[in-house]
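Handout, section B. The chain below has 314 residues.
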Amino acid sequence: MSLPPGTPDLEVLDLLVSVAELGSLGAAARRHGISQPAVGMRISALERGLHLRLLDRGPTGSALTDAGFAVVDWAGPVLAAGIALMDGVAGLHRGLSPQLHVMASKTIADHRIPQWLAALRKLRPELAVELDVANSQQVTTAVRDREVTLGFVEGPQAPTGLGSRVLVADELVVVVAPTHRWATRARPVSLPELADTPLVWREKGSGTRDTVWAALEIHGTPARPAAELGSAAAILATTRSGLAPAVVSRLIVAHELRAGTLCEVDLADSTVLTRKFRAIWHRGTPPSGPASDLVDLATRIESARPTVRRPPRS
């Protein structure tokens, strides 16, 4: 197969279709990021090559001639075929470059994923990893719907209907501002008392929220939240203001505790609130290849990590 002499290229046909859709050379130029004179010159060259007048140019815009309408109609499937061709080429590139799409809860993404991915990069330098960040409920939904290959979530229980592996336990601590009355309290706080206290909570769907709620609802329905916030940074800032206590991961509050901008509150009976960090996957597609490597690396890194404990009181 050989193209007839004078066959226009796809870019100039695309310009002509844009003029038809938008009604002017200037609007087409803005869409394609080139100058209006350049559009005019290329359309004129197309007309000369086809020996047809395609546009009636006027002071208020450009209108297609009958020949222009016909050429635009024929150009539609040609341009669609060009798009399909390039989509196919992009798919070939994706097939040649190994990729891994994962999703992680916010705490894990901030405090664990970077080290895990750095280790994976050393093992598989050719691998392209796409990471999305959401709360644990959203991660679970994405894995269940097969939108991602692998998920990392936090919470007291494994999500139902999915495969999972516990990577590490994470301690949750009660914190208050230095000005809060609990900051200098000598007597530990009990879980029933904590349940009766309005707290600064994470948003619904958060693994932290689910863990704390499960621990407190044993002692009655937890009090109405003092605030519900969608990020750890917002929770720490609000708690520093003295509004109310919060229950957060020791990972995210360690710096604040060392600096004295927040204070840890003792829980009665040596109660420790913990939640699990888990890798999760669809049961029909257990981890293999890069996904299996990432789960194994995360497990080894976490098992070798020193336990984060409460610093001694001064």
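Note. The first helix runs from residue 10 to 22. Compare this with the example in section A.
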